[in-house]
Amino acid sequence: SQKIEQNSEALNIQEGKTATLTCNYTNYSPAYLQWYRQDPGRGPVFLLLIRENEKEKRKERLKVTFDTTLKQSLFHITASQPADSATYLCALRTSGTYKYIFGTGTRLKVLA
Amino acid sequence: NAGVTQTPKFRILKIGQSMTLQCTQDMNHNYMYWYRQDPGMGLKLIYYSVGAGITDKGEVPNGYNVSRSTTEDFPLRLELAAPSQTSVYFCASRDELTQYFGPGTRLLVL
Q: Quick check: A46 and A56 in contact, CB under 8 A?
């Protein structure tokens, strides 16, 4: 069956460290994989997109990697800050469709 | 530029009642989506639209209906509310690659 999985347990890290979040999928061939940030009581906000033929994307302190062999994407936040505390969702879209499939999200807490 | 707006923010319904969740976007996007999010869960796609007059079912369409008469508006209709429809509902619109979400409607069915 098709699945997209994120670590459901919260991730606590110390300020200044690098946070690494994982998104694994099975039985999909995604054309795009996206990462979103969601704060409590708010809608998700788009952060980064990576295509199937890309290995890595960066934006300021954020980095996303995409390994289609391992069927995994990693999302890194370097020099993390308490303001980075939120839930991070991954979502994929397969080619030829308009639908997005979301993971359950990982809650990140950056400790001052 | 307001982006995606949703009304109401919060609503309590009794079992069997009906209501319409409103969604409007001002970015002239063709693609629009309705999701529901249950506590601790990801977003589940209810319905989506690729343009005015065209809608299709997502993963969890049962108990819901949609229409898309204009590019801007994509209302979601609950005909006979059930406790299982207690959730937070998000509307989104999409440009070439990115989805833009509204602030959500929290619905409680008692």
A: no
> Which tokens in the block code for residue B50?
């690729």
In this structure, which amino acid lies at residue A54?
Answer: E
Chain centroid to CA B71: how far? Answer: 15
How confident is the model at residue A27, as a pLDDT?
A: 83
Cα dist. A32→A4, A29, A55, B10, B21 in Å? 13, 9, 12, 33, 29
Residue with more model confidence, A75 or A2? A75
What pLDDT, on the 0 to 100 scale, is given for residue B40? 79
Distance from CA of A102 to the nearest CA of B (A): 6
Burial of B98 (0-12, 13-18, 19+ CB in 10 A): middle
Whether residue A1 is predicted with pLDDT greater than 70 in this model: the reply is no
Chain B residues inside the 8 Å CB shell of A89: 42-43
